[in-house]
Design brief:
5 strands; 5-stranded mixed sheet; 2 helices; 28% strand; 80 residues; alpha+beta
């Protein structure tokens, strides 16, 4: 299945654009998505944490992805 990913912050900088498409198996999970992103963009390994939201809710690595899901990459945030 082809999934559209929306990236913010440093995740957007790593990918080089706001939106990115990823081809995954129909039974793919968030962990599978992260593995593919690291393969395509090795700089994702450098992030201390990367959260994924599916349809506006944070998702664990075992969450199953579906074709029409809104998938957002939320990188670690620092501030002061």
């Amino acid at each position: 299945m082809n999934l559209k990913i929306i990236a913010f912050g440093i995740a957007k900088e790593i990918i080089g654009q706001l939106e990115h498409s990823v081809e995954l198996a129909d039974t793919a999970t968030v962990a599978d998505l992260k593995a593919v992103l690291i393969q395509q963009f090795p700089d994702f390994q450098k992030l201390a944490s990367l959260r994924v939201a599916i349809n506006t809710e944070y998702a664990n690595d075992d969450a199953v992805l579906r074709v029409n899901d809104e998938i957002v990459l939320i990188p670690p945030v620092s501030g002061g």
